[in-house]
Specification:
Layout: H1 2-12, H2 26-159, H3 162-183
GO cellular component, one term: chloroplast thylakoid membrane
Organism: Leptadenia albida
GO molecular function, one term: proton-transporting ATP synthase activity, rotational mechanism
C-alpha cells in the first residue's frame, strides 16, 4: 500500500520542466492506468451498459413469460392426457369385464350346442341301428319264409299226386267262396 500512496505523492513532486521519463514501477503505473480506464468506461459506458443490461433483462423476462405460458399449456395437456388415460382405462376395464362375460356366454352356448349336436347324433345313431336291425330282421324273415316256402313246395310236390292236388284246389276254392259270401 505504501507504494500506491508513494506514487500519488510523487505525482505532486514532479520536477518542473526538463525531463521526461518512464516510470518503471509496474505496480504503481498499472494501478493508475486501470483507474483512468475504469473512470472513462464508467463515465462513457454507463449508458451502453445500462441499455445492454435492460435488453438482457427484457429478454430474460420474455423468456420466463414464454416458459410460464408453455408450462401452463403443458400442464393443461397433461391434465387432458390424464383424463383420456382414465377414460381409456375405464373403457378397457369395461371391455375386459364384458369380454369375460361374453367369453363365458359363448362357452356356455358352445357347450349347449355341442351337447345338442351330440344328442342328435346319438338319436340318429340309435335310429340307424333300429333301422338296420329291422331291415336285417326283415331280410332274415324273408329268407326263412322263402326257404320254408321252398321246403313246403318241395314237400307238397313230392307228396301230392294229381287227385290229392285237385282235392286241395277244390277245398281252397270252397274256402275262398265261403269267405266271399261272408264279406258280401
Amino acid at each position: 500500500m505504501k507504494n500506491v500512496t508513494d506514487s500519488f505523492v510523487s505525482l505532486g513532486h514532479w520536477p518542473s520542466a526538463g525531463s521526461f521519463g518512464f516510470n518503471t514501477d509496474i505496480f504503481s503505473t498499472n494501478l493508475i492506468n486501470l483507474s483512468v480506464v475504469l473512470g472513462v468506461l464508467i463515465f462513457f459506458g454507463k449508458g451502453v451498459l445500462s441499455d445492454l443490461l435492460d435488453n438482457r433483462k427484457r429478454r430474460i423476462l420474455n423468456t420466463i413469460r414464454n416458459s410460464e405460458e408453455l408450462r401452463g399449456g403443458a400442464i393443461e395437456q397433461l391434465e387432458k392426457a390424464r383424463a383420456r388415460l382414465r377414460k381409456v382405462e375405464m373403457e378397457a376395464e369395461q371391455f375386459r369385464v364384458n369380454g369375460y362375460s361374453e367369453i363365458e356366454r359363448e362357452k356356455l352356448n358352445l357347450i349347449n350346442s355341442t351337447s345338442k349336436t351330440l344328442e342328435q347324433l346319438e338319436n340318429y345313431k340309435n335310429e340307424t341301428i333300429q333301422f338296420e336291425q329291422q331291415r336285417t330282421i326283415n331280410q332274415v324273415r324273408q329268407r326263412v319264409f322263402q326257404q320254408a316256402l321252398r321246403g313246403a313246395l318241395g314237400t307238397l310236390n313230392s307228396c301230392l299226386n294229381n287227385e290229392l292236388h285237385l282235392r286241395t284246389i277244390s277245398a281252397n276254392i270252397g274256402m275262398l267262396e265261403s269267405m266271399k259270401e261272408i264279406t258280401d
